[in-house]
TrEMBL record:
This is Transmembrane protein. It is a multi-pass membrane protein. InterPro entries: Uncharacterised_TM-17. The keyword Membrane applies. The keyword ATP-binding does not apply. GO terms for cellular component: ciliary transition zone; membrane. The chain crosses the membrane at residues 54-76, 88-111, 123-141, 153-177. One of its GO terms (biological process) is non-motile cilium assembly. Pfam families: Transmemb_17. It is found in: Membrane. Its main location: membrane. Keywords: Membrane, Transmembrane, Transmembrane helix.
Amino acid sequence: ANVDEEAGPHRKLTNRGEVLGEHVAAGLTSTSRFDGARAVPAAAAMLSSLPLQILLYFNGWYVLLYSLAMLALFAWKGTWLPYAESLRGLFVLEVVLVFALAVIDGARIFLGSKGNKTERVGPLAWSTGLAFASIVAYVYYLKLQIYVTRGDVIVNAFAITFVAAEILLSVLTIATFTRANRAAR
């Protein structure tokens, strides 16, 4: 480190030329990092939930596998199981609901991940609200659709477990963010 002659002996230049003495005087700690020409204060405690983020990541992949499995099950059901003509419309509606559920779950996972990473309550709360809509759809596929096969029970039970765990972790994370926001005021 060079000594800045006009700034005095206590103001050292870093290899990028930022003056360390000014940053210490500004209240930045020695753990502060430099981002280009400006100092970034030392990071506050991270409030994001790593278990929630991991669960959201793996649930994103599970939603893809779930959608493919449900479409394969519906293809099998439509081919091999007898549907009365009056139930064909309901069968088509159940297939369309798989696509709608994939979109809802994609939005839910995106909002949950965004809210968790940015430590914002709003997106995380929306994600939790969409999670309840997802659970209603999963319970429909688990109990109320025209034909419920063992495959339906397995994939929907896993989906409900994933979403229930996400709801629990989301509520705890929202409480953590809210408590930290109140303490910061």
